[in-house]
Design goal:
- The protein is of the alpha+beta class and 495 residues long.
- The chain is built from 19 helices and 22 strands.
- The strands form seven sheets. Strands 18-19-17-16-20-21-22 form a seven-stranded mixed beta sheet, with helices on both faces. A four-stranded mixed beta sheet has the order 3-2-1-6. Strands 8-7-9 form a three-stranded antiparallel beta sheet.
- Strand 11 (185-186) and strand 12 (191-192) form a beta hairpin.
- Helix 2 crosses helix 4 (136-145) and helix 10 crosses helix 17 (437-449).
- It is globular.
Length: 495
């Protein structure tokens, strides 16, 4: 009888985190959530931060929960989080300040400031990364421009998952997939973009070495092991960027597919062997993020279900505490092809009264604003589906081939209406699942590291054998073609 291996995956998202045990018997993987906890920004006056000390406490609670449920034997620990955010340590490896949240306002105007020193095309040619206000590059430039003493006091720079991995093991390193989200990693040189940082007066001596997904960072620090009741457990870097781990769990065969990791953000793209850095990818503002098994994730970051999450938060504060299923049902009953928005418009990046922001956008662009919760949600979901169509069009142009299937993974794969709208808008078959793609990919990348799986292809065979998938077929194209023409005009109008 084959031995079952246990791997613990810590998956920290922008809304919540979880400790998930993955039990792998060599053929299928079964997941069990042992500890779940909320996450989100902490506002201090005008700024947003992450409460990393509370998150660290939650990670240790996850280890203790594993010890209580499963004992001390564990084959590996892997951790992933969102991208772009970071922490600074001083000469004694103590935390300097409270890490900022990527939606903080301090990066306003920083892209323009960077491009005064280094042209936009040159930044892209070096890094291949999509231009977004939230990128680490502009967060660090904001610290320099605003005279933060922390930047000069820093002796080590760690992305958020790298910080937690350091606290777990005592090893300071930056994993490849998370390092590429900074917009100061050079994927062709395979190293930090030293010259770019020096020209922006950002210190380079604080950067750690970069390791590849699957590398073992060490074993659980003795003090952490003693506190949580755990033993000498290997700590493995999966793809520490959550999207990298999610894409590893895409249950695809062949290469004629696009993936769509759907959650707070929608990340839609393809896997390539080399970064795609050319005039098209620059013009379309696509990104080349680090993948696993020697791949690059050529993708587009799209605002995603953040728009719906913020609407729900606003309505709950007003006494209308709708569940996501309730809102989807309201949207399904609302008229089709009403007002549309550009999901990635700058107005929607920061926390705020999202229903009002959406309605204001519609009115400014000469549309009748949606009037009910159902109409607002329908507007969001149809707009996202049309942005996915635009993204697919650009991916196919850059790849020079048709992509037959869209694999939707993550929490958004549960939204049956959005999956069907995506199939209709793109006129492609949509395969939805698994929901817990990030934790699944995290676990299976640990299994590859430990020699239980030989390749990414074998890991995807395990995904197909382990989870039920739902297939959506496209409906009539004509009404979506008309809506897409409206959407393209809207994008031009608001560019």
């Amino acid at each position: 009888m084959a031995r079952t291996s246990n791997y613990l995956a810590f998956d920290l998202g922008a809304e919540s985190g979880r400790a998930v045990v993955g039990r792998f018997d060599g053929s299928v993987v079964q997941l069990e959530t042992l500890h779940r906890f909320p996450n989100g920004p902490v506002r201090i006056f005008d700024h947003l931060h992450w409460d990393v000390l509370r998150l660290w406490t939650e990670l240790k609670m996850g280890l203790s929960a594993y010890r209580a449920a499963c004992g001390a034997e564990l084959d590996g620990i892997g951790l992933d989080t969102w991208g772009v955010d970071f922490a600074l340590l001083d000469a004694h490896d103590e935390l300097l300040g409270t890490p900022y949240h990527y939606r903080d306002v301090r990066t306003e105007g920083m892209m323009a400031a960077a491009m005064e020193r280094v042209p936009r095309a040159e930044i892209f040619a070096t890094t291949g990364i999509q231009f977004m206000d939230i990128n680490t590059l502009y967060q660090l430039l904001a610290m320099r421009q605003q005279g933060s003493p922390l930047l000069d006091a820093a002796r080590a720079f760690l992305m958020i998952p790298d910080l937690f991995n350091y606290w777990l093991t005592g090893t300071k390193a930056s994993e490849f997939s998370i390092a590429t989200t900074t917009q100061f990693y050079d994927p062709r040189a395979g190293d930090w973009a030293w010259n770019l940082l020096e020209r922006l007066d950002i210190p380079v001596g604080i950067l750690p070495r970069v390791i590849q997904p699957g590398e073992q960072l060490g074993t659980l620090h003795p003090l952490v092991a003693a506190e949580t009741g755990m033993g000498d457990v290997p700590v493995i870097a999966p793809a520490c960027h959550d999207t990298g781990s999610a894409v590893a769990a895409v249950p695809a065969t062949g290469d004629s597919f696009a993936y769509l990791s759907s959650g707070t953000w929608s990340l839609m793209g393809v896997e390539t062997r080399q970064p795609v850095i050319n005039d098209d990818s620059l013009a379309f503002n696509f990104t080349n993020e680090g993948g696993v098994s020697g791949t690059i994730r050529l993708l587009k970051n799209i605002m995603g279900l953040w728009l719906l999450q913020e609407c729900r938060r606003t309505w709950a504060a007003q006494g209308r505490d709708w569940g996501y299923d309730d809102l989807t049902q309201l949207a399904a009953a609302a008229p089709a092809f009403g007002a549309l928005v550009e999901p990635d418009h700058h107005d929607f990046l920061r926390p705020g009264d999202m229903p009002t922001l959406l309605c204001d956008f519609c009115q400014r662009t000469g549309q009748q604003a949606p009037r009910s919760e159902g109409e607002i949600v329908r507007c969001i979901l149809e707009s996202l589906a049309l942005k996915y169509r635009w993204t697919l069009d650009k991916l196919e142009r850059m790849q020079g081939r048709r992509l037959d299937t869209i694999h939707v993974v993550g929490g958004g794969s549960q939204n049956r209406l959005l999956c069907q709208l995506t199939a209709d808008a793109t006129q492609r078959v949509v395969v939805a699942g698994p929901v817990e793609a990030t934790a699944t990919g995290n676990v299976l990348l640990q299994a590859i590291s430990r020699g239980e799986l030989a390749s990414l292809q074998e890991a995807r065979e395990v995904v197909r054998a382990s989870f039920d998938l739902t297939t959506y077929h496209p409906g009539p194209a004509a009404p979506w073609d008309d809506a897409y023409e409206r959407f393209l005009h809207l994008m031009e109008q608001t560019a």
